[in-house]
Amino acid sequence: MKNIRENIPSLKATPSFRISFIQTELPDYYAPWMNVAANLPHLIEGHQLRREVMPLLSTQYLRGHRQLRLARLALGFITMGYVWQGGGRQTVKILPRALAVPYCTISELLDLPPILVYADCVLANWKKRDPCGYVENLDILFSFPGGDSNKGFFLVSLLVEAAAAAGIKAIPIIVNAILHHGLCSLETALQDVALSICKMREAFKLIHGKCLDLIAAWKDNFLMPEGLVYEGVWDSPKQFFGGSAAQSSTLQCFDVLLGIQHSWGSVPRFSAEYLGCMRDYMPAAHRAFIQTLASGPSLRQFVLATGDAGLHAAFNKCVSALADLRSYHIQIATKYITIPAGRCRAEQQQLGGCVHKGTSVLSERGTGGTGFMRFLKAIRDTTRKAQLTEQ
Ligand SMILES: C[C@@H](C(=O)Nc1ccc(Cl)cc1)[C@H]1[C@@H]2C[C@H](n3cnc4cc(F)c(F)cc43)C[C@@H]21
Fold first, then answer.
1. What is the mean pLDDT of the chain?
2. What ipTM score was computed for the predicted complex, to two decimals?
3. Neighbouring C-beta atoms of residue 338, cutoff 10 Å
4. pLDDT above 50 (res 79)
5. Atom of ligand 1 nearest to the CA of 243
């Protein structure tokens, strides 16, 4: 595969969704954070993380968005490791101020919750080993114990996101075509979206053999019923959702573009509200982009109103490509994520308590677990029904 930037030209051009190269360095002053984050698997497996003495550092020497994202990434991994180091048995209820104060300060500046999210683990957590090399030389910056499976999972998610960039880049063209009645440019742009979604599915295939030891949460988690106290920031404990595929901006963006509404009351946790809530866990620029798209002209209504067969077919091609991608996501989640969660449950029954898998407790949310599977199947079915019927 050629260099990722040459393969997907829109990477250079899409401001909001450009897969930007997050820095991999911070000023030396922040070495205590970077060294602990880089050494996390070893510290967690050796149960030494909580003994690490972390100085309370000031965030004033962080310069620019990329340094803030990198510092937030390091503190997010350290926090997750600190909370879940002992697995489900010995979760902590208080995050020490040396972590909590800078983590919450940076998270507030970035308008993100003080917990590890998809945009941290996937969009910010990567570098090119050889700056001039090809896509194969991607590597992650930070990981949990579990070796290459975490790495593969995060990098494949990144490649899926990178493949989406071309489709995202077509969205402003689509909105302009609607506003100016440019039927030809609209049909071409819809074809670009369909092709991009097909490429996302191709990238997704690289996930075989990878899995994620899920990013546990401290919301609706029976092991931390109150949530987490962020010492020196808030007096009462706070609850936040863990990392989730539903936090992927592209996962939600194409639904909004195609007018696919997800409302699903049977399991309130995974309803439209959950998807809406997950937008608060996306980068602010992505959230704004989706919100602007949602409040703009309806592509679906426009295509129906034109009665144009070519637009009709191009729109339906996008919907069927998205439904196929969702079906593939379900296959992957079943094979690589839900089963481990099921295994964990089986262990729980045997041991009559919570069994942790590696550094985190498998989460019913986010990526695996039966609740998430029902969620994925429901949004796949809703996607299928979004096809424009024959005129
Ligand atoms: C590999 C998986 C994962 O769960 N990754 C993950 C989860 C949590 C964390 Cl913390 C880190 C990584 C899935 C990747 C592909 C992503 N995707 C982006 N746009 C999509 C549009 C779609 F229609 C669709 F079906 C999946 C889509 C979602 C996640």
1. 82
2. 0.98
3. 20
4. yes
5. 10
DSSP 1-69: ---HHHHSTHHHH-TTT------S---GGGHHHHHHHHTHHHHHHTT-GGG-------STT--HHHHHH
Pick the residue whose CA is nearest to atom 3 on ligand 1. Answer: 245
Q: Please give all residues whose beta carbon lies within 6 A of any atom in ligand 1, as ranges.
A: 118, 121-122, 153-154, 156-157, 160-161, 164, 207, 212, 215, 243-245, 248, 250-251, 322, 325-326, 329, 366-367
Residue nearest to atom 19 of ligand 1 (CA): 251
Residue with tokens 């960039």: 165
Other C-beta atoms lying within 10 Å of the C-beta of residue 70: 27
State in Å: Cα 250 to ligand 1 middle: 9
Contact 10, 166 (CB under 8 A): yes
Q: Quote the CA–CA distance of 307 and 285 in Å, as a whole number.
A: 34
**Chain segment 214-230, per-residue pLDDT in tens:** 567 788 777 888 899 99
Q: Tell me the C-alpha distance between 119 and 296, whole Å.
A: 25
Which range, of 231-240, 267-276, 290-299, 377-386, averages the lowest pLDDT?
267-276
Q: How far is the CA of 60 from the centre of ligand 1 (A)?
A: 34
User: Angle, to 10 degrees, between the axis of helix 183-204 and the axis of helix 309-332?
Assistant: 20
pLDDT tens, residue by residue, 31-45: 999 999 999 999 988
8 Å CB contact between 184 and 329: no
Q: Is 352 exposed, middle or buried (0-12, 13-18, 19+ CB in 10 A)?
A: exposed
